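Researcher: Sequence recovery benchmark, item below. Answer with residues only.
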């Protein structure tokens, strides 16, 4: 869970980026509502995917706007100073459009925002909600950092790159659950087992360590000489001797996620497969060796790609990694033409892969926190074709 102190710190950072004349902001992206208040509707509830709003004031007030069933489905605790909760379903009357409830909540706190200059998050607020505050609020503003017009949502996304301590702790919880699934995979991957059966075992192991229901998604697919690259959700295909099983998945806990990979050989690997693995492993290590704040992301891609090319497997056919947090992927992006540069607080993946027609495909991945003094490897799973 995010902490109250962390939410307050993030609110303070946001106000530092906004012009002095802005007195309030209206946030509607569910990830950003959570980012500043820890209010998140449980995805395993009947109110999953419903909306809420968060109004922040420069005076330090955080006000939650939601309907009664959205609040009922929220993970607790969350940290706000005031709530505008509108009855939507009362077990007595027919329901209306749930967005109408948000408009009513906004009207109920009109004394807070009316007559004061505000900002709307255009990426997360509906046109209906925005029209209510149109006379007092703007869609964009001139950002002091580059003096170019920008939106509230863009600024929040830039702030999200530098993770706070409570975010890192939550990400580490995701890592431990993800590691459990990787350990279990070595027990169950063998000829005759289906991709879906592997997925079920991995999911169960991850959720047991997480201590409750969580989302497990990613690539659970076999590759081989006939199908050298495959991704996505598992199928009923049954593993055969000589296959490679790519296990690249995320565990989402309270909106944050891990994302790391291993490729497991179904039966003893051939010498060519071992050489392919060693190239990928060494490409990962080469990029990891230069990880630190200030490094250009294109240089990380290049470091991994050079190793693959030197072994006869390159260049790297996709990204060398990406940022992690509330989205997948999110900045920074580690590709050949990236303009991104690592900053302290980034949480990233490194995941060089190699896919050879007539042989098979594989990918290996770790997650890292970029610190003020270097890096911290967050994922601790075993990387290797065999246990």
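Model:
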């Amino acid at each position: 869970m995010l902490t109250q102190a962390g939410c307050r710190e993030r609110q303070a950072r946001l106000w530092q980026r906004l012009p002095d004349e802005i007195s309030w902001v209206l946030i509607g992206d569910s990830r950003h509502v959570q980012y500043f208040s820890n209010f998140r509707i449980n995805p395993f509830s009947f109110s999953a995917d419903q909306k809420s709003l968060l109004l922040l004031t420069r005076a330090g007030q955080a006000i939650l706007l939601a309907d009664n069933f959205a609040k009922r489905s929220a993970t607790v605790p969350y940290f706000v100073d005031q709530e505008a909760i509108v009855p939507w379903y009362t077990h007595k009357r027919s329901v209306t459009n749930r967005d109408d409830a948000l408009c009513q909540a906004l009207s109920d706190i009109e004394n807070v925002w009316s007559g004061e200059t505000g900002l709307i998050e255009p990426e997360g607020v509906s046109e209906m909600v925005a029209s209510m505050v149109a006379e007092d609020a703007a869609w964009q503003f001139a950002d002091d950092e580059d003096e170019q017009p920008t939106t509230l949502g863009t600024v929040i996304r830039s702030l999200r790159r530098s993770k706070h301590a409570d975010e890192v702790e939550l990400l580490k919880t995701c890592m431990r659950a993800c590691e459990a699934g990787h350990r279990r995979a070595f027990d169950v991957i063998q000829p005759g087992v289906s991709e879906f059966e592997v997925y079920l075992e991995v999911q169960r192991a991850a959720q047991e360590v997480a201590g409750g229901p969580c989302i497990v998604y990613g690539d659970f697919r076999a590759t081989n000489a006939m199908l050298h690259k495959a991704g996505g959700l598992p199928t009923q295909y049954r593993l055969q001797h000589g296959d490679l099983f790519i296990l690249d998945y995320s565990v989402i806990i309270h909106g944050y996620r891990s994302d790391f990979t291993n490729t497991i050989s179904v039966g003893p690997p051939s010498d060519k497969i071992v050489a392919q693995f060693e190239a990928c492993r060494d490409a990962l290590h080469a990029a990891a060796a230069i990880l630190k704040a200030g490094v250009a992301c294109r240089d990380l891609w290049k470091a991994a790609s050079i190793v693959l090319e030197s072994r006869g497997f390159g260049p790297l056919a996709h990204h060398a990694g990406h940022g992690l947090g509330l989205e997948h992927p999110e900045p920074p992006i580690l590709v050949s033409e990236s303009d991104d540069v690592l900053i302290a607080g980034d949480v990233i993946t490194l995941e060089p892969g190699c896919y050879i027609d007539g042989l098979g495909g594989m990918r290996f991945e770790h997650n890292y926190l970029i610190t003020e003094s270097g890096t911290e490897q967050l994922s601790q799973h075993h990387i290797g074709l065999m246990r």
